[in-house]
Specification:
- The chain is of the alpha/beta class and 262 residues long.
- The chain contains 7 helices and 12 strands.
- The strands form 2 sheets. The protein has a 9-stranded mixed sheet, sandwiched between helices. Strands 3-2-10 form a 3-stranded antiparallel sheet, with no helix packed on it.
- It is globular, with a radius of gyration of 18 Å.
- The two termini are 35 Å apart.
- The relative contact order is 0.21.
- The mean pLDDT is 95.
């Protein structure tokens, strides 16, 4: 499956006037993308649905972005050692050649990173500065003003994207387009996917479905909040089958495009 997502040339599909916004998830047949540990309260990606093939495709999608959108929760988990650092191109064994691929395709050595947060309570990893990555903060108009000013005083641009506390999809995409970004990859989970769908600005969803049922009483799915209605209409545009992984169960690699309301 190596090269499957690079062949999509996502980095060429957007413009500053209309950035290409894409997301990817891996889930089980019963719709779980993460399970919550009842003792610790922490959530994690189940190892049963992970595979080297899916991770390679994740890295290929990441390599095509000129801007990664993550969130404060990921940075808190990263600082606590619960998650791996996936904010840089070419640092994973599975993606060593992707830095060269970016150079050959006219992209900067590393993508910019946007951190979306309502509370603005998160650490910024030193690895971003070491990689010379541009870092921006996105929040809502009701974010704590003292934290907004503290971040600006440290030299981080703060984008106000929404009238409430949470970041909203359309204003965020509009602001990032005005800064010249063309390809925006969402690494920010169900809340960000949901607002991008509701605001009609998601361009594409990549979904790996591992052929496994997980069960469990406490879990996460791809979306949160009220029903999506017509905003949740998707059209399957490609489907690939991997018979071997994970663990011999098989998986689908699916690509969906949002369907415009009838």
């Amino acid at each position: 499956m190596t090269g499957l997502c690079l062949a999509d040339a996502v980095h060429r599909l957007g413009s500053p006037a209309a950035p290409f916004v894409y997301a990817s998830f891996v889930g089980s047949l019963d719709g779980r993308i993460a399970l919550r540990d009842p003792q610790s309260g922490t959530s994690s990606l189940p190892v049963e649905i992970t595979s080297e093939a899916d991770f390679r495709l994740f890295l290929e999608l990441q390599a095509q972005a000129d801007c990664l959108i993550t969130h404060g929760g990921y940075l808190r988990d990263l600082a606590a050692g619960r998650l791996d650092d996936v904010l840089h191109i070419g640092t994973q064994d599975a993606g060593r050649g992707l830095g060269r691929w970016r150079a050959e395709n006219g992209l900067a050595p590393q993508p910019a990173v946007v951190i979306a947060s309502a509370s603005l309570d998160f650490p910024i990893p030193d690895s971003l500065a070491r990689a010379s990555q541009r870092v921006l903060i996105a929040t809502g108009r009701q974010a704590p003003p003292e934290r907004v000013e503290a971040l600006r005083a440290r030299g981080y641009p703060v984008i106000i994207a929404g009238d409430g506390a949470w970041v909203e999809g359309a204003p965020l995409v509009r602001e990032l387009g005005a800064l010249g970004f063309r390809s925006l990859y969402l690494l920010a989970g169900p809340r960000m996917l949901s607002t991008m769908l509701r605001d009609g600005v998601l361009s594409r969803l990549y979904l790996t479905v591992a052929h496994r049922l997980l069960g469990g009483e406490s879990f996460h799915t791809m979306t949160v909040g009220p029903g999506l209605g017509n905003a949740g209409r998707l059209r399957l545009s490609s489907l690939h089958y991997d018979a071997a992984a994970p663990d011999g169960t098989g998986q689908w690699f699916a690509r969906f495009e949002p369907r415009q309301p009838a």
